[in-house]
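Form 12-C: Joint structure prediction
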Amino acid sequence: PASTVAFANQKGGVGKTTTVISLGAALVELGERVLLVDMDPQGSLGVGLGIEPHSREVTVYNLLMQDGSTFEEAVVGTAIEGLDLLPANIDLAAAELLLVQETAREQALQRVLREARYRYDRILVDCPPSLGLLTINGLTAADGVIVPLECEYFALRGMSLLMQTLERVRARLNPDLELQGIVATMVDTRTLHAREVLERVREAFGDLLYTTTINRTIRFAEAPVAGEPILTYSSESRGAGAYRELAREIRGRETVS
Amino acid sequence: PASTVAFANQKGGVGKTTTVISLGAALVELGERVLLVDMDPQGSLGVGLGIEPHSREVTVYNLLMQDGSTFEEAVVGTAIEGLDLLPANIDLAAAELLLVQETAREQALQRVLREARYRYDRILVDCPPSLGLLTINGLTAADGVIVPLECEYFALRGMSLLMQTLERVRARLNPDLELQGIVATMVDTRTLHAREVLERVREAFGDLLYTTTINRTIRFAEAPVAGEPILTYSSESRGAGAYRELAREIRGRETVS
Ligand SMILES: Nc1ncnc2c1ncn2[C@@H]1O[C@H](COP(=O)(O)OP(=O)(O)OP(=O)(O)O)[C@@H](O)[C@H]1O
Ligand SMILES: Nc1ncnc2c1ncn2[C@@H]1O[C@H](COP(=O)(O)OP(=O)(O)OP(=O)(O)O)[C@@H](O)[C@H]1O
Ligand SMILES: [Mg+2]
Ligand SMILES: [Mg+2]
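Section 2 - Result
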């Protein structure tokens, strides 16, 4: 079955959605069949891929609530052959409240993906900027978690909380959950501040920090307006190249371990 | 009593916390007594002001849950005379789940601030990056809301959802809630993309967009490391000046209306 990876960080705006879209497209270039799953009621994954999430009748919400909808009704093809999307929209915000009362509320996404795992090589889950039930579902359904981290102080300070949450999920819900790595995003190599924060992350997390870093470039903000990943929007750009490099590094680490 | 303003945007990383800290400090410079209230379990307001929120025994959480703690026990002075903080930490995440079952759950913060409003000229509430119960509490307790908006596509797309939420809060919980304005943050005047998005915001929201815009500068990321607002960390910087200008514009609009 497909390996499932959650992208989580409760700090907002650190590049979770951009990483899921860009990495997904880069893995497809390497020949993988990839499913992207949006667990954020903002629906940014769909927006970034030119798919209007708010007009979809059936989304991940319906599958989580088990209202009889099927995976086939919810999943959407993207403009990239081999890259599918399980979209979210504002309905998902209701799931967070409704799931609280359900038994096995943390395993709702795991149930949804049980069959889908046989149709793809990899499933990437985009989490919202919080540590609530939607993110916990993403972490419980996943084999591993990758943490996009903007090199700034608030995000750095938030890491201990995130690590505690991963530990709690591992202890109570998903013993095999592995922290696969931390990817430094939006790095502005010209500033001392970014270099200092990057150094502190390297000291604290060592090899967990991917050697590939993603520099800040305006191309990332432009690509969603065109509704496509930077990999196709600006294929020769440094930003596209950085995520191709990250995809190779992630696959390289898998064969080693 | 003090006018209470919530700073809300479910899009993450758009400058909510930075705006609350910077604007708070600028209003104190103009002679106001200001209370900052953190409704985000990340506790960034405290972190940005050099106050360690995770070591506080009594925070806004205890007051929301009415466990017998007093406002005096929770409130913390900052290094700036006239600027106080009601801190939050991870305990607040529990409040979101616990409050769901309570009656009048949306008015918990309103009750907490009822007396405090007589000790300050202005109360600024920092909301988390979501439209859940903590943000709804902030909007219900407030007279007005200011929306920090990064000039990027995902944040722009999120505005319709935010406006719908404000409308719902106004209809059901707080009829006097006024959208005071939208402040463009992290503006990179060199890029066409930022100018294009800014133009779209101006078309969609007209006078609601403050004429003061906050440009992107690394000073904002450096100030939290020093545990102080940019107003004191780098008083002569463009970033500090921009928030002084915003404070004057906000007060100027109040005398007119
Ligand atoms: N390397 C980069 N350089 C410049 N801009 C970037 C980069 N990565 C992402 N961005 C931009 O930064 C903004 C935030 O990124 P994104 O929305 O992916 O973060 P997020 O963590 O998913 O946010 P949220 O917490 O709201 O879900 C977007 O406008 C995106 O286009
Ligand atoms: N005008 C600016 N120029 C450059 N950096 C900025 C600016 N405003 C804020 N920042 C930086 O951007 C990052 C995000 O800002 P901030 O944390 O205030 O946003 P937020 O909306 O409160 O995030 P969250 O959604 O996680 O609560 C911080 O590192 C901050 O220092
Ligand atoms: Mg996102
Ligand atoms: Mg914040």
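Section 3 - Comments
The first strand of chain A starts at residue 3 and ends at 7. The two ends of chain A are 18 Å apart (CA to CA).
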